[in-house]
UniProtKB/TrEMBL annotation:
Repeat positions for NHL: 92-128
Organism: Rotaria magnacalcarata
This protein's record includes keyword Endoplasmic reticulum: no
PROSITE patterns: NHL
Protein name as annotated: NHL repeat-containing protein
PANTHER family: PEPTIDYL-GLYCINE ALPHA-AMIDATING MONOOXYGENASE, SMP-30_GLUCONOLACTONASE_LRE-LIKE REGION DOMAIN-CONTAINING PROTEIN
Highest rank taxon of the organism: Eukaryota
Record-level GO cellular component terms: extracellular region
SUPFAM superfamilies xrefs: NHL repeat (SSF101898)
Record key words, sorted: Glycoprotein, Repeat, Signal
Gene3D superfamilies given in the database record: TolB, C-terminal domain
Amino acid sequence: GLHQLRYPTDVLIDKETDSLIICDRINQRVVRWSRRSGTTQGEILIDTITCWGLAMDEQRYLYVSDTGKHEVRRYKLGDNIGTLVAGGNGQGAGLNQLNYPTFLFVDRQHNVYVSDSSNNRVMKWNKDAKEGIVVAGGQGGGSALTQLHYPYVIFVD
């Protein structure tokens, strides 16, 4: 039910609505829970998505990684379809593909940074780009300075 979460993988605070936006992975949905006391259940923002990571830009667009479709989409709140911003060409290692995208970071120019975990790399997708740029790793999994091993969380400074 909407009063339960199963394997939440990411959460962010929507200051405008004073609510939490949560990636409810096993239930395959993104939900919003009010932070006001007395809240006993959430509301579904996006359903039927194998979500992992969330990010929000200053215009309140929500970015969600989907490990099932190996892509990242940008959603206007209230929109269940979204716009493809990274991946979307099936699972793979090409520059236009992702393989198990987990966490995200979106900068002020709306460039999307993605932990492309199973490809052992971090990708940057410029706004409206059809393929990404490897910004870290991409030399196979390992411990050398040119390698990453299944990167998860990222932050761009």
